[in-house]
């Protein structure tokens, strides 16, 4: 019977790490003709490495230890990179008080009596003036596909860290396979436009950059308003609203608990190609039922 075929497909998917939360989601997946991907942790490994540390005042280790203090409670991929760099240098981290993550911007906290911010250059520029030559140095790193986080203390920029996150091994081929099936793909990212374009060029995908979480949600809505059936794939860090706004929200393997809760489906093994596999499973199953 029909329910039996759907149950069998859900079970077969689960066995391959394609978690689909029920028959209604499986049916909806068949209609998907646009997929919006988060960048960090979804199209990329989400395991950035610190590549450069620049101190405007003090030394590199001083910038790194304050950055580490700010990120101590964060699970953001950039936080993980910064904490790994602190550990590699065996830095003792001061305590951070009132740490708050600001989606799409960065993190704030009080450390050693100073009000600190660490985050995107755009967000940092709202809190501290950035001379043109510093912005140019940051832009050069961005053009190399690196993401920069700027450290601000009491309204003055102290320095920055650059990090690089490699695309997932199968990302380019998986995106091409989706395009070959007539499925539109777009990358939505909070990262800056230069970094995002460098990654998008390598992967062959349309790029929308410098987005706040609410922008990602809005763009998903715009695609739906164009008559597209939209899947949104993300790790859920800052992105739960866009996952919820999509026709099908898909959490990417190793994502956050909030992503797994919000999402309609999940690809558990961190393969971009599994998004296409999930759509194919739905199309096959529904074709056999009808
Ligand atoms: P993405 O869309 O690539 O997942 P996010 O929306 O998670 O990006 O973050 C957007 C930008 O905000 C990052 O590129 C970074 O500059 C900044 N940012 C966000 N959270 C943090 C954090 N915990 N530490 C440093 N920077 C952050
Ligand atoms: Mg994110």
TrEMBL record:
Superkingdom per UniProt: Bacteria
Compartmental location: Cell membrane
Family: Belongs to the cation transport ATPase (P-type) (TC 3.A.3) family. Type IB subfamily.
Protein name, as recorded: P-type Zn(2+) transporter
Source species of the chain: Ancylobacter oerskovii
Residues of the full protein shown: 435 to 724 of 773
């Amino acid at each position: 019977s029909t329910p039996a075929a759907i149950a069998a497909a859900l079970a077969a998917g689960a066995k391959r790490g394609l978690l689909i939360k029920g028959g209604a989601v499986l049916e909806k997946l068949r209609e998907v003709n646009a997929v919006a991907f988060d960048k960090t942790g979804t199209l990329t490994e989400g395991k950035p490495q610190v590549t450069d540390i620049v101190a405007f005042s003090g030394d590199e280790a001083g910038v790194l230890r304050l950055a580490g203090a700010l990120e101590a409670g964060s699970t953001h991929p950039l936080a993980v990179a910064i904490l790994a760099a602190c550990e590699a240098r065996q830095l003792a981290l001061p305590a951070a008080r009132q740490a708050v993550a600001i989606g799409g911007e960065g993190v704030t906290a009080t450390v050693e009596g100073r009000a600190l911010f660490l985050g995107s250059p755009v967000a940092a520029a709202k809190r501290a003036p950035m001379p043109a030559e510093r912005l140019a140095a940051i832009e050069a790193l961005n053009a190399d596909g690196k993401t920069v986080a700027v450290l601000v203390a009491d309204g003055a920029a102290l320095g920055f860290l650059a990090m690089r996150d490699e695309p997932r091994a199968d990302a380019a081929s998986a995106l091409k396979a989706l395009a070959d099936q007539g499925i539109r793909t777009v990358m939505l990212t909070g990262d800056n436009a230069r970094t995002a374009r460098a990654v998008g060029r390598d992967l062959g995908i349309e790029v929308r950059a410098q987005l706040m979480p609410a922008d990602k949600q809005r763009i998903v809505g715009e695609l739906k308003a164009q008559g597209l059936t939209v899947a949104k794939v993300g790790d859920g860090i800052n992105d739960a609203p866009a996952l919820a706004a999509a026709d099908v929200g898909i959490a990417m393997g190793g994502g956050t608990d909030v992503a797994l809760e919000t999402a309609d489906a999940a690809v558990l093994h961190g393969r971009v190609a599994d998004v296409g596999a999930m759509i194919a499973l739905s199309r096959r199953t529904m074709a056999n039922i009808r």
